[in-house]
């Protein structure tokens, strides 16, 4: 399983960049996890829009779904070339109006996921965990048959169950919206120290800090995580790639 960071900013994209978006590839299948502002433009450096097999949304905040509309327009425009293509867009149904928007004409179809059920999407198996965030949001554990596993926290403050859910992941993509001591947890986000605590308990093979703040030096986030956790930690950048080893 290969992961490519398409966008990683908190809230809004910096110049020529994007908010949350991650491309997953395995056995010819291409999935987009979250579709934030700027994602559609950046995605095309790595994958044609029409090559996507599915999209999975963690929640419906703009920085995770702003480019959904343009993706649906792209699907309409490409429909002349690919008349049979239907793009499934997975989302939760805790917000019926948002969920209804995942289906667009004959080109995209909303598919519900639930916390208590596994979802099989191509060669990927998904499990979901409701996070602590002002609106319903789901962390995801994604595994493939070679044993490789990825956990994406999506947006959340720290809670122990998230650490248990993340245990032993090959790659943990953790949201890190603030530096140690900053007041982000009350808004349903994690600081670097929260991620340090999460990683110390979950012991993943690699941590990737993402959903990054617009101030300070991101290298400092790594140093602050390392206060609580001795392991491999990186900060997200556009085009950062990681091949999950599996067994
Ligand atoms: Zn959010
Ligand atoms: Zn967000």
Automatic annotation (TrEMBL):
Keywords: Zinc
Lineage top rank: taxon: Bacteria
Pfam family, one: Lactamase_B_2
InterPro entries: Metallo-B-lactamas, RibonucZ/Hydroxyglut_hydro
Gene Ontology molecular functions: 3'-tRNA processing endoribonuclease activity
Record domain Metallo-beta-lactamase: where: 18-189
Cell inner membrane among keywords: no
SMART domains (UniProt xref): Lactamase_B
Entry-linked PANTHER family: METALLO-HYDROLASE YHFI-RELATED, ZINC PHOSPHODIESTERASE ELAC PROTEIN 1
Protein name: MBL fold metallo-hydrolase
Protein source organism: Halalkalibacter oceani
Organism lineage: Bacteria, Bacillati, Bacillota, Bacilli, Bacillales
